[in-house]
Amino acid sequence: MVLTAVEIAASVRAGKLDPVQVTEEALERIAAADGVVGAFRRVRAEEAVKEAAEVAARPDLASLPLAGVPVAVKDVTEIAGEYASHGSLAGPSSPAAADGVIAARLRAAGAVLVGLTRVPELCIWPMSDTPDGIARNPWDPTYASGGSSGGSAAAVAAGLVPLAHGSDGMGSVRLPAAMCGLVGLKPGADLLSEGGWFGMSVHGPLATTVADTALLLSVLAGEPSLAVVEPPASVRIGTSTTVPLLRTPVPKELTAAVSTAAGLLAAQGHAVTPAAPRYPATMVLGMTARWLAGPAAQAGGFDFAALQKRTRAHVRAGRLAERAGLIRERTRDRWISRAKEFFSEYDVLLTPTLSHWPVKAGRWHERGWLTNVLPSTRLAGFTGQWNFAGYPAITVPAGRSAVSGLPTSVQLVARPGEEGLLLGLAAQLEQANPWPRTARS
Questions:
Q1: Could you tell me if residue 437 is inside a domain?
Q2: Is 186 domain-assigned?
Q3: How high is the pLDDT of residue 195?
Q4: pLDDT at residue 440, rounded to an integer
Q5: Same domain, 263 and 133
Q6: Do 84 and 175 share a domain, yes or no?
């Protein structure tokens, strides 16, 4: 069992663990398992060992929050000497001259960047396969690990690393976290926005424990206070298992997870009742337009002819959406007004994370656009609207399917700025209903 990030960092700071040894052990796990799991696009083996030695020699070692912790970063991250492929063979491949904000903050905190994790092209889809590999669910490798942070989720759930960075534009942290039995947090747009997809995409952590999630969030956001998880006061929680607007059927084991979590939170003194926001009909059009047009804008720096067939179709649709004027602030404002209405009466919304089970692992990048769209929209019914609103949301494991053995989970949503509340509630669920940390537990 791999140690948690909190445990590794504390032991390194105390001189009980050597960052080089910790890194080499992580690299050994990756070498042994990633041929099956497919989590990494690029493993930085030599570089990581060298960087671990540099961490060990730092004069501020005893104060580093992520001292010697091996961390995987999503393949959208600027790292000096590396290039971010965004899951594509069509983009630029010149190494970055300097670290971007995410890599810089991780390094400053003492983390060791062991590799770049697999993503679908332009991070569009909730399945993470590329021409050179497929990110698989460590609980059952016949299933996809999700996306677009699917490689990051697979790396953590397989016990290869204790922490991974991800980004979330329509559920891309929460969906793979749910599929792989992890904690995954999408911060509010005001905390960790990466500016993509017309403001819908944010950076976020994936981890096996709430404490590790809080620790990584605090480093990514540059807010040390977020690492402290406090027990929340009694709050008002509304629960809903109905897919907003579409009302498509949700598998019973996924809705049962909400009932279980609701009971556990009620036992902690929270007021839990069935309730949901009044979702405006225009919400789906508004967030879908951004899901289309966001990657289309990014594709301007890529060789269009070399993009995958499904991506070219997506980019064309996105350009049409933008030309048609479908990126409207008033559509977002109308939805935010409805969200504020709900959160004036409730502090938290509790839903399933997934609206359907994960798809099978495979070479989805070789299939057509509609073949990818239909299963993608079927399983992401509860997530994208909170990117559109800019509200924080967290995925928490709830159990395992008695039929497939795959993890089940719930999603908690709160007002902007309430990431601490979400972490506190998640910690209460973790204490009341502990989950296996990895698929190798």
A1: no
A2: yes
A3: 78
A4: 73
A5: no
A6: yes
Which among 168, 158, 102, 165 has a CA at the least distance from the CA of 135? 158
Which residue in the list 85, 145, 148, 355 is annotated as catalytic? 148
**What average pLDDT does this structure show over 39-45?**
98
- 74 catalytic residue (yes or no): yes
148 is catalytic: yes
Residue that is last in its domain, among 204, 227, 250 = 227
pLDDT at residue 1, rounded to an integer:
61
Query: What sign results for the dihedral spanned by CA atoms 351, 357, 361, 362?
Result: negative
User: Residue 441: pLDDT above 70?
Assistant: no
Residues 97 and 39 reside in one and the same domain: yes
Q: Is residue 48 pLDDT above 80, yes or no?
A: yes
> Cα(439)–Cα(417) distance, rounded to whole angstroms?
32
**Contacts by residues 328-337 (CB-CB < 8 Å, ≥ 24 positions apart):** 328/286, 331/282, 331/283, 331/285, 331/286, 332/286, 332/388, 332/389, 334/280, 334/282, 334/283, 335/279, 335/280, 335/282, 335/283, 335/286, 335/385, 335/388, 335/389, 336/389, 336/390
pLDDT at position 194, please?
Answer: 78
Same-domain pairing of 217 and 270: no
Same domain, 243 and 219: no
Condensed to tens digits (0 to 9), the pLDDT of residues 114-126 reads 999 999 999 999 9
CB atoms under 10 Å from CB of 209, counted, come to 23
Mark whether 150 and 220 lie in a shared domain. yes
CATH classification of the domain holding 109: 3.90.1300.10
**pLDDT bracket for residue 2 (50, 70, 90):** confident
Domain boundary among 190, 205, 227: 227
The residue from 128, 145, 167, 172 that is catalytic is: 172
Q: Is the dihedral of CA 298, 304, 306, 310 positive or negative?
A: positive
Q: How far apart are CA 223 and CA 416, in angstroms?
A: 15
CB of 126 closer than 8 Å to CB of 166: no
| pLDDT above 90 coverage of the chain, percent | 98
- Whether 289 is covered by a domain: the verdict is no
**Residue 357 lies in domain:** 236-281+325-432
pLDDT in tens, 190-231: 998 877 899 999 999 999 999 999 999 999 999 999 999 999
| For residue 13, pLDDT beyond 80 | yes
Examine the residue annotation and report whether 11 is marked as an active-site residue of this protein. Answer: no
Taking the C-alpha atoms of residue 406 and residue 257, their distance in angstroms, rounded to an integer, is: 13
